[in-house]
Amino acid sequence: MSAKDAKVLKTEPLKEETAAWTKLILTTYTDPLGKQRTSEHAERRTRPKGSDIDGVGIVAILEKPTGPELVLQKQYRPPIDKVMIEVPAGLVDAGESAEQAAVRELKEETGYVGVVSESSPIMFNGTSAHLLSDPGFCNTNTRMVHVTVDMANPANQVLKPELEENEFIEVFTLPLKDMWKGIAKLEKEGYGIDARVGTLAEGIEIAQRWKL
């Protein structure tokens, strides 16, 4: 069984009263010239009370003798009807910090046990079909949490993901130094590239090219 075995069977309008994850909002605002305008957008229903974010993206780096590698996932996303190349990610639970959510989600989705090194500012842009959307369309936000995975840790020798019944995730890694070439190859093979993965790869490529 592969993530590529999934497919869309049909699409239809979603009624407001049956939507579990999102709701549609019509906002009236004034532009910089004082003209009144309207904007349509979606909002998540799942942000925990008291939290400033909806979820986390996880930059998980494996420490290997051959060089650092980034943990990635292949996961089918119905809105795009493609298998996406993504970093591990997930929603924040009530009472969790971004860092706690990142360590938990990494273990659940990949089996890896890691240690947080740093977190990004709150971000609003991305294209993952499940978690993030263009801020012109959705108010969803996230923090990117950097996690280091010690491969000498016995817990990382035999991985035991804890996937939910509706999760079908294939975990793999790419060397950081080869990220740009790696995702270009995956796109040619028919995979969709999550914006967070593409932006990270592009940043590494720019740094290498300009010797930053």
UniProtKB/TrEMBL annotation:
What are the alphabetically sorted keywords of the record?
A: Hydrolase
Is Ribonucleoprotein given among the entry's keywords?
no
Q: Which InterPro entries match?
A: Nudix_hydrolase, NUDIX_hydrolase-like_dom_sf, NUDIX_hydrolase_CS, NUDIX_hydrolase_dom
Question: Gene3D superfamilies annotated for this entry?
Answer: Nucleoside Triphosphate Pyrophosphohydrolase
Q: Which SUPFAM superfamilies does the UniProt entry name for this protein?
A: Nudix (SSF55811)
Q: Please provide, in alphabetical order, the Gene Ontology terms of the cellular component aspect for this entry.
A: cytosol; nucleus
Swiss-Prot/TrEMBL GO biological process terms: nucleoside phosphate metabolic process; ribose phosphate metabolic process
Q: Where is the Nudix hydrolase domain?
A: 51-197
Q: Which GO terms describe its molecular function?
A: ADP-ribose diphosphatase activity
The protein's matches in CDD domains, at most eight in alphabetical order, are given as: NUDIX_ADPRase_Nudt5
For this chain, the family text in UniProt reads: Belongs to the Nudix hydrolase family.
Q: What is this protein called?
A: ADP-ribose pyrophosphatase
Organism lineage reads as: Eukaryota, Fungi, Dikarya, Ascomycota, Pezizomycotina
